[in-house]
Design a protein that fits this description.
This protein is an alpha+beta fold. It is 29% helix and 27% strand. It has a single domain, classed as 7,8-Dihydro-6-hydroxymethylpterin-pyrophosphokinase HPPK (Alpha-Beta Plaits), CATH 3.30.70. The strands form 3 sheets. Strands 1, 2, 3, 4, 5 and 10 form a 6-stranded antiparallel sheet that branches. Strand 6 and strand 7 form a beta hairpin. Helix 3 runs antiparallel to helix 4.
């Protein structure tokens, strides 16, 4: 990065309603068009079983690496605004959604406030996050949890995750 004000962050994306890949593509385009944000790379998409509330369609999930000038809370607000813009309706916890955007990692920061916890508090438990994150940053250390590649491998052995061929 040439600009020292830029921070590398990782955003999880998921959809299980409508045209799932189109929803993810649209979210990535809007994120990349937002002031102070640039999408650098996107992991392959994966078709994944729902977690928590399981009486719903399977998800398509991926992770995007971004560079941003936005502070963490402003980036979170942007992600929530993009979810709203793309028709996300919050109802059933872990229920169906047109788009889900989660701020997973923000630089090397560890944040624990009522508004935001970074790294994302449950990401190390979820193959649908760790597998695509490991595709982008296999050596990244998740504080107190381990390297992304190791976490992804152990989760993928336990949780069902099917790779799908999507051009996002």
């Amino acid at each position: 990065m040439s600009n020292p004000a830029l921070v590398v962050a990782y955003v999880g994306l998921g959809s299980n309603m409508g045209n799932k890949t189109a929803n993810i593509r649209r979210a990535l385009a809007l994120l990349d068009a937002a002031p102070g944000v640039r999408v650098v790379r996107v992991a392959p998409c994966y078709r994944t079983a729902p977690v928590g509330y399981t009486r719903q369609d399977w998800f398509v999930n991926t992770v995007a690496e971004i560079e941003t000038e936005l502070p963490p809370l402003e980036l979170l607000k942007l992600l929530l605004a993009l979810e709203d813009r793309l028709g996300r309706v919050r109802g059933t916890r872990w229920g169906p959604r047109t788009i889900d955007l989660d701020l997973l990692v923000y630089g090397r920061e560890e944040i624990d406030t009522p508004e935001l916890v970074i790294p994302h508090p449950r990401m190390h438990e979820r193959a649908f996050v760790m597998v695509p994150l490991a595709d982008l940053a296999p050596e990244m250390e998740i504080p107190g949890r381990g390297k992304t590649a190791e976490l992804a491998l152990s989760l993928a052995k336990v949780q069902l995750i099917n790779a799908m061929e999507y051009n996002v």
